[in-house]
Amino acid sequence: MKRPKPPLNIVVVEDEPLIAMDMEMMVEDAGHKVIAEAASLYDAQSWDNSLNPDIAFVDIQLARQTSGLDVSKMIQVRWPQTIIVFVTANPKIIPEDFGGAHGVIPKPLSQNGFLAAMKYLQEGVCDPPPTVQQPNSFTASPAFAATWYD
Q: Which positions make up the signal peptide (predicted)?
């Protein structure tokens, strides 16, 4: 499998405009590119199939009574290689199997925590396993972490 090189292509699925804007700025501060954004499953379904995101940051509770779990499933079907990270204020609602996601970043977001998670993910995506320690701001799903160390 060919590994992506930085800058990574990122999609952001977040229904709170200020949080979405903060996330986009932090992604760009980390040297990556936001290629699409959405506030709901319906918005994400309108994305062009050629997007090919490397990482998707997905809130769980979205606009128009849609769920990040459904967005995760849609992304898995359309772009199976995409790393999906839930960003949520309530990590306890994430299923034990992480709903197919590769990890979780809890809200509220801090710039340092988000950037540390981005660095860890960049290494994990581009040149696994990551050489930096997993930051407290990111929890990898057990299945995802195992792919780096098998």
A: none
Which residues pair with residue 105 across a beta bridge?
Answer: 87
**E runs forming strands in 8-143:** 9-13, 33-38, 55-59, 83-88, 103-106, 139-140
Cα radius of gyration (the chain): 14
Residue ranges covered by each domain of the chain: 9-149
* Residue 126 near residue 3, CB atoms below 8 Å: yes
| Assigned token pair, 82 | 């995409």
Helix, strand or coil for residue 101? coil
Fold of 9-149: Rossmann fold (3.40.50)
pLDDT digits (tens, 9 = 90+) for 42-72: 999 999 999 999 999 999 999 999 999 999 9
C-alpha of 26 from chain center? 13
